[in-house]
Specification:
single chain; 383 residues; alpha+beta; Helix Hairpins; HSP40/DNAj peptide-binding domain; 4 domains; four-stranded mixed beta sheet; three-stranded mixed beta sheet; 10 helices; 25% helix; 29% strand; Chaperone protein DnaJ; ATP binding; repeat; metal-binding
């Protein structure tokens, strides 16, 4: 029993013309004999072509839907259009050459009689990536870092030609200097030429007579280079820095690529970052919180005075303005430093401390009632 053409293409029976074309292109890429060398691939490719030939043309599709394979086999349909559907097919689709050019444009430049151009002019070098870890304060204030980057540099001995000094290059005998080789492929719809880069000269069209001993004929050699890069203030995790012309060297006099440095910031044991703001925590005694005081706190700029207002409650957040992270690209503008104040409640009191606190509780009328002194301290600090 012949396979169902709709099932072969993986489409529904009410699929549109565009749906059929998309399904065919996808399967043709997968099963074309030049791409798929597995057993049975060529036979499957022929079945896919036959299914597309029938379903892509409205008249033959209508006969197939009504009569099945018998309606579209050779000689079928005489008196009902005969083979007119096949004659109109090439005109309707613009010819199979257009379809195959689209399908196989990704396979080494294979087209229906088309060609690919070899690259003989200057070629820009590849861009490179480096991941760099920096500490917290370097991210805040920036600075200079020395890095080592392995990359390809133009060979100084042959100046990038790949040929030994005093020697030259000859025309490639495989491709006769074109840099391309052409191979004919037969399909159910005719012969198609597949053009690919010449494997002998790698598309250059020339073969070096004597290779440079320094670079082995590559024209470039791998070197590890030391660089100093500038890290601007305010960078963060994932910030990307571009170092121009420090990627791989180009070919045939092409410009070098660029180096992209991706930054990772190590965490700090004291400070955390929230956008442009810095966060930290301090702990004061309950007396400092009740009476207020002025204390020294650490910031990324060094020690700063911080005023603790009288009656400060636990987990109050105090702000040191413009002591945060500089804005990237505008270091004059900085965020704030937000400090969370924790209040330490003593778990043990000596006799004198208890006496004084109980006297204070009496003055405040807090010595009687549930909890005694503990209840008083709890009420003072919101407990």
């Amino acid at each position: 029993m012949a396979a169902d053409y709709y099932e072969l293409l993986g489409i529904s029976r009410n699929a549109s013309k565009e749906d059929i074309k998309r399904a065919y292109r996808r399967l043709a890429r997968q099963y074309h004999p030049d791409v798929n060398k597995q057993e049975g691939a060529e036979e499957r490719f022929k079945e896919i072509n036959r299914a597309y030939e029938v379903l892509s043309e409205p008249e033959t599709r209508a006969r197939y839907d009504r009569f099945g394979e018998a309606g579209v086999s050779a000689g079928a349909g005489a008196g009902a259009g005969g083979t007119a559907g096949y004659q109109d097919f090439a005109t309707d689709m613009g010819g199979f050459a257009d379809i195959f050019e689209t399908i196989f444009s990704g396979f080494g430049g294979a087209t229906a009689g088309g060609s690919t151009r070899r690259r003989t002019g200057p070629t820009r070098g590849d861009d490179l990536r480096l991941d760099l870890q920096i500490n917290f304060r370097e991210a805040v204030f920036g600075g200079e870092k020395e890095i080592r980057i392995p990359h390809l540099e133009t060979c100084e001995t042959c100046e990038g030609s790949g040929a030994k000094p005093g020697s030259g290059a000859s025309t490639c005998s495989t491709c006769s200097g074109s840099g391309q080789v052409r191979r004919a492929t037969r399909t159910p719809f005719g012969s198609f030429a597949q053009v690919s880069v010449c494997p002998t000269c790698n598309g250059e069209g020339r073969v070096i007579e004597e290779k440079c001993e320094t670079c082995g004929g590559a024209g470039r050699k791998r070197e590890t280079k030391k660089l100093k890069i500038t890290i601007p203030p305010g960078v963060d995790n994932g910030t990307r820095l571009r170092v121009s012309s420090e990627g791989d060297a180009g070919l045939r006099g092409g410009s070098p690529g660029d180096l992209y440095v991706y930054l990772g910031v190590k965490p700090d044991p004291e400070f955390k970052r929230d956008g442009l703001n810095l966060l930290s925590e301090i702990t004061v005694s309950y007396l400092q919180a009740i009476l207020g005081c002025r204390i020294k706190v650490n910031t990324v700029d060094g020690e700063e005075d911080l005023n603790i207002p009288a009656g400060t409650q636990p987990d109050t957040v105090l702000t040191l303005e413009s002591k945060g992270v500089p804005k990237l690209g505008n270091p004059v503008s900085r965020g704030n430093h937000l400090i969370t104040v924790h209040v330490e409640i003593p778990t043990r009191l000596n006799a004198k401390e208890r006496e004084l606190l109980e006297e204070l509780a009496k003055i405040k009328g807090e010595n009687s009632g549930k909890g005694g002194l503990e209840g008083f301290l709890g009420r003072v600090f919101g407990g």
